[in-house]
């Protein structure tokens, strides 16, 4: 069973969480994107073998979003950030 560390609630069972996909922030002005750019943002994902930053929602806990870095080979969670911490560290384009 995967244990996920919520930045606010601590380690909890994976069944308390919903995965929100890659930790890419929503484009600031999506209306300025071409159809191809918008489609790529929605449907094209990195899917690396190794560490991947993902958005997670603590649905059966504090009901907050955060970012967790998950090792895609072992599924181990290696780091977590609040959304604010992640944006500050990775920048607005993360």
Secondary structure layout plus pairing:
Elements: E1 3-6, E2 10-13, E3 18-22, H1 35-43, E4 51-57, E5 65-71, E6 77-82, H2 83-90
Antiparallel strand pairs: 1-2, 3-4, 4-5, 5-6
Output the keywords.
single chain, alpha+beta, two-stranded antiparallel sheet, 6 strands, four-stranded antiparallel β-sheet, 18% helix, 94 residues, 2 helices
General description of the model:
The chain is α+β, with helices and mostly antiparallel strands and 94 residues long. The longest helix is centred in the middle third of the chain and has 9 residues. The protein contains 2 helices and 6 strands; from the N terminus they run βββαβββα.
Distance between the termini: 29 Å
Strand order of the largest sheet: 3-4-5-6
Mean pLDDT: 90
Figure out the total of helices. 2
Total strands: the figure is 6
What characterizes the major β-sheet? 4 strands, antiparallel
Strand fraction: 35-45%
Low-confidence stretches: none
Shape: globular
Structural class designation: alpha+beta
Helix content: 10-25%
Task: Determine Rg (CA atoms, Å).
Answer: 14 Å
